[in-house]
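Quick question, first post here. What does this chain look like in 3D?
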Amino acid sequence: MQTGVTTAEPRRRTDGGPEEVANYIDGRWQAAVRGGRLEHRDPATGRVVATVPESTVEDIEAAVASARRAFATWRLVPAPRRAEIFYRAAEILTRRKEELARRMTEDMGKVLEESRGEVQEGIDMVYYMAGEGRRLLGETMPAELPNKFAMVVRDPIGVVAAITPWNFPFSIPTWKLCPALIAGNTAVFKPSSDAPRLARDFVAILTEAGLPPGVLNLVYSAAPAVGDALVRHPGVDVISFTGSTAVGKQVAAAAGSLMKRVSVELGGKNAVIVLADADLDLAVEAIVWGAFGTTGQRCTATSRVIVQRSVQAALEERLVARTRTLRIGNGLEEGVQVGPVIHRAALEKIERYVEVGLAEGARLLVGGRRAEGPGLEGGHYYEPTIFTDVTPGMRIAQEEIFGPVLAILPVEDLDEAIEVMNGVPYGLSGSIFTRNVNDAFRAIRDVSVGILYVNAGTTGAEIQTPFGGTRQTGNGHREAGTAGIDVFTERKAVYVDYSGRLQRAQIDLDLA
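> Answer (accepted):
Ran it through. Tokens below.
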């Protein structure tokens, strides 16, 4: 047995010291083969809250081998029986919701209210996909010949590599792993080392609920070479990746060259259109929530406001006033509305984009600097920032910043607003505020995004609807809803001929 291998879940520390997070391979919690570890710090305080295995290709090899062995038996477990494990897991998650939420805030900084919401979204997804275990819908259709039956069934594909980011460390793993496992696949789960503990907790809870050894394997590594080895491994059949567009393109190219099934969910540059007849107070609340919730670190964050010129000044006045009321601080403190960004590199990236915006000629309305003061020492805080008089070609209007920076772009009418909204590389989510039903339906028809809201912000997708975007936001697959199962299954056409003679399709029709 390897050094550092244990079948018991590692104990969580209660003295405030860092937790030693472990890999989980073939039903055993274990250290990385070479024993290396990385520190993970609370972005609000700088305190080390966990150490994480620095896994290598050897750990990936062991995890994939485990998943391949388990696939042979897991695929034969009836889907309703598989689903029972997920129902039990959802009940455990519900009981532990507050504990998980607090750990999430410590791991990646979002305020506690949002962490609770994310845990609830994950619980909802576990319940939802457990329900799909009683359906896994195929199709039946009439055959063109007599005494012949035609149907389509779903087959699992094999081993899934689920690679997830730090900004939604609980819900995104549930979007990928629940449909993959319910459908009969096995998985190797590689979460971000920047938010490690929720991944450990989810795997531990599924194990407690009865998931057999080898069905789900957990491997941590921050090394690009290790992620590349997982993507290219011949024992992996499906890749499901959420992360940056640059890395997603590399993943898609590598997996595609090996004829693997691949789903990538990437960046966004989401916009809210505000027309002259909009409820401005409602629009302001939605924009502030969309732009500065999770400190702007969402793929669905509101990063652009496209406003009709006649109400530009009134909207800006309200936005600035509302933004100035936001309380910045440690997300564990009640009343805090904007937490830290994930790490120093993210903070420095935001600063560079603010400098770019100023150099491009955008006008700064509020923010534009690091947040400092009592209680913020040691953390990575940036003030909610708003630019106005931004033009569509500016970099701050085109590129994903992934921080609390909002660009306001004035336009003359709805036609120009739709043109500006579609004029970016991404197409994840969008929103329009108007009281005119005709304008709302024109936006529904003409805006090129995967998710569109009317009189609501750019965030807030629900688990029963498909999630994903157009253009460089992804490669056309969707997560959540019944569509979330598609990438993890093959459709098999089945014909049953009970005529007792050979019937040749498209040829023997005159004998029918």
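The first strand starts at residue 5 and ends at 6.
The mean pLDDT is 96.
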